[in-house]
Design a protein that fits this description.
140 residues, mainly beta, seven-stranded antiparallel β-sheet
């Protein structure tokens, strides 16, 4: 079995490629609500159906003082744009996630006296049905 080392990630938001500033953390979540459909007299257990699905995404990007102007405008809270994620890169045939998302939270930059990386922590929520998902086998 081949395993993925995860250092060839492709990330873009609103057409701005961000993987060059990516710090190595990605959190992707797909979820579905459930709806109680229990009906009838004498029911002894709850019955449920699948409700609305949702996607969320988060990652950190480094504060690069030389290139900050190239990408910082895409990091405005409330921006709705297409987020594209390729865990193995963006070469044809590789897995792809693509969805219109809203950047709903930006933390940082938060410098400290320690010599650690200064970065932005970004959180996104799905704004529409994804056009490509890794779970469905979609590719570049």
């Amino acid at each position: 079995m081949a395993t993925l080392n995860g250092n060839n990630v492709y990330l873009s938001f609103g057409g701005v490629q961000l993987d060059g500033y990516w710090t190595g953390q990605v959190s992707k979540s797909s979820s579905a609500n459930t709806v109680d459909i229990t009906a009838g007299s004498g029911a002894t257990h709850t019955q449920r159906a699948t409700g609305l699905k949702d996607n969320s995404f988060g990652f950190n990007v480094v504060y690069d003082d030389a290139d900050l102007a190239d990408y910082v405008s895409s990091l405005t809270v409330g921006t709705k744009a297409v987020l594209v994620f390729g865990p193995e890169g963006n070469t044809a045939g590789l897995p792809k996630f693509e969805c219109s998302m809203i950047l709903n939270d930006v933390q940082g930059p938060q410098p400290s006296v320690e010599l650690g990386m200064v970065m932005f922590e970004l959180s996104f929520e799905g704004a529409d049905v994804p056009t490509s998902t890794i779970e469905a086998g979609d590719t570049f």
